Amino acid sequence: MSILNKISSDWMRTKHTPIRIMVYFSPIIYPILMLWYSSFSRGSELWQLNIHSIFSQGLGILLPMVVALLTTLVVQQEEQAASFIGLLAEPVSRKSIYVSKLLMVIFITIVDLLLATAIFLLGMKFVLHVENIYYIKFFESALLLALGTLFLYGFHLIVAFMFGVGPNIVIGSIGLIAAGLMATGLGDGIWQYIPWAWSIRLGGMIGATFPEYSYSSVIANYFNSELLKGVVPAVILFILVLIIGSLWFERWEGRKED
Fold first, then answer.
1. In a designed cystine with 198, which of 44, 95, 148, 243 is the match (CB 3.0 to 4.6 A)?
2. Distances (CA, A) of 30 to 90, 117, 122, 181, 194
3. Residue 46: what pLDDT?
4. Contact 131, 31 (CB under 8 A)
5. Which residues touch 143 (CB under 8 Å, ≥6 apart)?
C-alpha cells in the first residue's frame, strides 16, 4: 500500500468521529468570529494591517492547542480499537503508519488554514468592504502558520501514542500560553528557540511587507533575517522528528499500562 493510499485510508476511518466535526467547522467558525471582531476597528488608516494582525495572531495562539487536540483525537481513535491492536496488526510497515498519520494531520491543517483564510478574505471584501485587499499576503501568512506547526505535529503525535490524552493536552495548553507570550516583546530574541512560537511569529511577519509599512531595503533585510530564524529550525526539527518518530514507532508495541 502506497503512502497516499494509507493516508486516504486513515482519513476514511475518521468518518463519524469528532475529528470530522473539528475539521469541517473550525475553518468556518474562526473567520466569522474574526470578521465580527475586526468590524470594531474599521476606519483606521492601518485597517487592513490591523485585520491581518488580528487574524494571524489569533491562529498562531490557537494552533498549539489545535495540534494537541487533533493528534489526541487521531491516537484516541486507534486506542479505542482494542488498545492499538488493530493498528499494530496492519499489513504495512510501522514507519508507514506513523508517517501517514503525521502527513494526514498536516494536510488537514494546511487545507483548513487556507479555507479559513479564503472565507475571511471573502468576508473582508463583501462584509467589511475592504478595498485593495492583499490576497497573496494573507495566503502567505497561512502557509507560514502551517510551517510553524510541522515539528509540533510530529512531537505531539509521539507524545499522544506514548503517554495518552492527559499529557498531550497539558503540553498543548502550555504551548498555547507560550505562543501568546512570545507574540509580545517577551519573545523578542528568543522566539526562534520556542517551537510553539514559530507559527505566531512567522505568520505575523508578512504584515511587515504591507505597503502601509513603507517596505524598504532595510525592512526587507530585517524581514528576511527574521524569517530565516524561524523557517530554518522549523524545517530541520521537522525532518528530525519525522526520522526519530518513524524509527521509534517501528519498535513500539503499544502503551504499557500500570
1. 148
2. 37, 10, 13, 21, 25
3. 80
4. no
5. 110, 113, 114
Residue recorded with cell 501514542: 161
DSSP code of residue 89: T
C-alpha cell at 235: 524545517
Contact between 49 and 210 under an 8 Å Cβ cutoff? The reply is: yes
Give me the chain's average pLDDT, please.
91
Residue pointed to by grid coordinates 478574505 = 121
The C-alpha atoms of residue 161 and residue 46 are separated, in whole angstroms, by 45
Closest among 104, 64, 103 to 194, alpha carbons compared: 64
State how far Cα 191 lies from the chain centre. Answer: 16
- Calpha distance 170→175 (Å, rounded): 9
> Does residue 234 contact residue 201 with C-beta atoms inside 8 Å?
no
Among 126, 128, 155, CA closest to 237: 155
Dist CA 111 CA 20 (whole Å): 13
Model-wide pTM > 0.90: yes
pLDDT of residue 213: 65
Predicted confidence (pLDDT) per residue in 158-202, tens digit: 999 999 999 999 999 999 999 999 999 999 999 999 999 999 999
In sequence order, which ranges of the chain are alpha helices (DSSP H)?
3-12, 18-38, 47-80, 85-88, 94-126, 135-147, 150-163, 165-182, 198-205, 217-251
